[in-house]
Amino acid sequence: MTEPETDGRIVLVTGGSRGIGLACARRLAADGDRVAVTYNSSPPPDGLFGVQCDVTDSEQVDAAFSAVEEHFGGTVEVLVSNAGVTKDGLLLRMTEDDFATVLDANLTASYRVTKRAAKGMLKARRGRIILMSSVVGLLGQAGQSNYAASKAGLVGFARSLARELGSRSITVNVVSPGPVATDMTAALSDDQLSAITSAVPLARMAEPDEIAGVVSFLAGPDAGYITGAVVPVDGGLGMGH
Question: In this predicted model, what pLDDT tens digit does every residue of 44-62 receive, in sequence order?
Fold first, then answer.
């Protein structure tokens, strides 16, 4: 277990043990924040305070926040809701469980963690909430109707909260990545990677650090007057949305 630091804002990144979440956590830690991450199926990362949490379980969410608050001695000031899952399939082959599971893990889980974080933010009269969506949420993708619905739902959720919480100096924004080079995409063949990048105007996938840079900006002082925004980091794939 890492020793608690005494300076910097308290940040929680859900799904922060790998990929985009880990990149965001390390970037915010480099910015000087005190960063905690939740993890579930993957082991906790080295050098960061990790709390095991299934974000589909409200009791585990509450316990995770309590552990972070106890460790750092304060409430969460920046929330990055990043944890999520996929269960792809064509509509006629998609079960109700496939649909409900993805909505619960990607959309309802963001409601759970945001609601818990908002308690402390409202008392403090400040806070940053950043939700991780996807270009698929607005562009659509065959075989991902459940995933697209969950990621599109985050936009309406965030914009409603931006109006609800704005008078307390709490910003709520959405980051919308396109294809990102992660452990999952590293296992794809050259033909599969070519098919993914051929539709991207910049003709490549993003690096996780490029997503993290935008999250860092939205969490930082220069984004104090930005709320209810959807920021694409997709190489131009979703332009016009």
Answer: 899 999 999 999 999 999 9
